[in-house]
Amino acid sequence: MATLVRTTFVKVLTPAQGGKIAACGFVQHRSIMGKALRESLPPPPPKPAPFDYVNKDYTWLRSLMDRTTHRMDENSKVVVVEGTVASKKTAFAKCLAEDLGMKHFPEANMDLHYIRPNGVDLRSFDCQIPEDARTFDHVNFNRNPTHRHAGNFQIMMYIARYSQYIDALAHLFNTGQGVVLERSPYSDFVFLEAMYNQKYISKGVRSVYYELRGSTIEELMRPHLVIYLDVPVPKVMEAIKCRNLDHEVNGKAMTAPYLTEVERQYKTKYLRDISTHAELLVYDWTGGGEVEVVVEDIERLNFDKYTEREEPKMKDWRLPREVEWADQRMLYTNQKDYLMNLLAIPRLDVPELITSADDSYEREKVIYGHPDFHYLYGYNSKDGPVLTKNKVPKYYEYV
Q1: Strands 179-182 vs 103-105: parallel, antiparallel or unpaired
Q2: Strands of the sheet with 225-230, listed across from one edge
């Protein structure tokens, strides 16, 4: 109803345009262009300056003047780089983002949860609090994958990827710049399934994970393009030994059966499912490869051929009216707190996901007894009274 009222109001405000602001002449641009191709063409017309979504809300009144599709060009797309452990995703994703003129988002990790906005890392308090209330990240998982916190770790990893993907969509909608991510919330389940297969986690944890995923994943817009770097398990194990990280080499998680199951979940489930919604490119990355070759393949893709209403591919990005683009932009820019709150599903039937009241009390007492936590984030501690608030960006990570 709100959308209907807004559309009617906009038509009244813009009679000279015949009410066309409510419609949308924007269609998915045919092709992504690499650096060499862009430089060979005449300069494109200037786009609006990036909107400061970090400090400002994108409001309904602002949407009347700042049309979202005016920022979009052929490279305003979401690209996700996938691959198993030690497949050199980071180096590839960085180079790809640079060539395509996109923003690179490194793989999400537990820093989202453990490094607070004031810069304090909660992992530094572990030696002072009970074991069951301590932090648990990828280092701990690799060393002890059957720990009772392993399930909670994977759920928190999904939350981190979900949060980062919202940030990526907000960046694209407010700047028009495309994004390149390493993995996404859509592929996170492959690691959960591998953990379940190897009996690292319980059936109860798996049930909670899919309940959380089911309540949140449909709020996102699927990527335009997924690139999978395929490396066979023996080569992955060699790469793990070569990079010589103690928690991987001497840990108990990165076994051949675990890595094999990750690969199987990728190839039999994730890639099959995501290919119905996004373009998919798969490369044998056993010995690495050339980013320029991948860019040439990307340039050959035709993103605007999927126009039928019932066609699932690119469906998330076929928004027929400008007001719908504005609605999505408002959602990812202004309502991240709402999207994150969808994860607040109370489940008290899985013991390993619950910390006792006594342990939680000891943890809170240690952390919030520290001087850095005497004041809420954004409020002065020494420069003025408690009620004097420093200027804090609107858009920061949720913890």
Answers
A1: parallel
A2: 103-105, 179-182, 78-83, 225-230, 279-284
- Angstrom distance (rounded) from CA 169 to CA 227: 18
Count of other CB atoms within 10 angstroms of residue 40: 8
pTM assigned to the model: 0.90
For residues 363 and 132, the answer to whether their CB atoms sit within 8 Å is: no
3-state secondary structure the chain: CHHHHHHHHHHHHCHHHCCHHHCCCCCCCCCCCCHHHHHHCCCCCCCCCCCCCCCCCCCHHHHHHCCHHHHCCCCCCEEEEEECCCCCHHHHHHHHHHHHCCEEECCCCCHHHHECCCCCEHHHHHHHCCHHHCCCCHHHHHHCCCCCCHHHHHHHHHHHHHHHHHHHHHHHHHHCCCEEEECCCCCCHHHHHHHHHCCCCCHHHHHHHHHHHHHHHHHCCCCCEEEEEECCHHHHHHHHHHHCCHHHHCCCCCCHHHHHHHHHHHHHHHHHHHCCCCEEEEEECCCCCCHHHHHHHHHCCCCCCCCCCCCCCCHHHCCCCHHHHHHHHHHHHHCHHHHHHCCCCCCCCCHHHCCCHHHHHHHHHHHHCCHHHCCCCCECCCCCCCCCECCCCCCCCCC
Task: Find out whether 201 and 154 touch, Cβ atoms under 8 Å.
Answer: yes
In this predicted model, what pLDDT tens digit does every residue of 351-397 receive, in sequence order?
999 999 999 999 999 998 888 888 777 666 555 555 555 555 665 44
Q: What is the biggest distance separating any 2 CA atoms in the chain, rounded to whole angstroms?
A: 70
Task: Look at residue 17 in the predicted model and tell me its pLDDT.
Answer: 38
Q: Which residues share a beta bridge with 104?
A: 180
Spans of the chain below 50 pLDDT: 1-23, 396-399
User: How many Cα atoms within 13 Å fall on the side-chain side of residue 297?
Assistant: 15
Residue type, 331: L
Find tokens 């590839």 and name the residue. Answer: 92
Place of tokens 């023996």: 234
The rounded distance, in Å, linking the Cα atoms of 195 and 197 is: 5
Alpha-carbon gap, residue 264 to 172, rounded angstroms: 32
